[in-house]
Design brief:
The relative contact order is 0.27. A hairpin with a 5-residue loop joins strand 4 and strand 5. The strands form three sheets. This protein has a four-stranded antiparallel sheet, sandwiched between helices. A two-stranded antiparallel ribbon has the order 2-3. It has four helices and eight strands, in the order E-H-E-E-H-H-E-E-H-E-E-E. The protein has one domain. It is of the alpha+beta class. It is about 25% helix and about 30% strand.
Length: about 150
């Protein structure tokens, strides 16, 4: 009988491969890249403490990677994209899922981001600014054949 499971090693590999490319704003374009005082493009993007390695360790420790399996997701690769604001103090606010795969994945990523330590804030023209951040997190659900034990083994 096939058994579903979430493959954590592939999950982390997918995480690193799916990091968004930074978008850089040109100096002097400050006002055109803000919505309600939040920057959508910045010279230096907000980042997780410890960079990608710190982010991966944080996810390994806090993310319940088997959430889609427990909620009945079929085998496949699911990339959840969440948007949030990192304020001038590094707090994560205004979290919102941009994808809707279901199976509890978006909720799980939002839950973990709510537990996040402070981020390094974005910078524009040498000043710390509030900025949007989009973060992908990839879940890989695989089916494996459960090995049967022989009585003679």
């Amino acid at each position: 009988m096939p058994v579903k499971k979430t493959l954590l090693s592939l999950f982390l590999l997918s995480l690193f491969l799916s990091q968004p490319s930074p978008v850089f704003a040109q100096p002097g374009t400050v006002s055109s890249d803000t919505v309600d005082g939040v920057f959508s493009k910045v010279e230096i993007e907000a980042s997780f403490p410890g960079g990608y390695e710190g982010w991966a360790k944080f996810l390994q420790k806090n993310l319940k990677a088997d959430t889609p399996v427990k909620k009945g997701a079929k085998a496949g690769t699911y990339t959840v994209i969440v948007q949030f604001v990192v304020d001038r103090e590094g707090n994560v606010t205004d979290l919102k899922a941009l994808t809707h795969h279901g199976f509890g994945m978006e909720e799980e990523v939002l839950r973990v981001l709510n537990k996040s330590p402070k981020w390094s804030p974005a910078q524009q023209e040498g000043k710390l600014v509030r900025a949007y951040r989009k973060q992908p997190v990839t879940f890989v659900v695989v089916e494996e054949e459960k090995k049967r034990k022989n009585k003679n083994d």
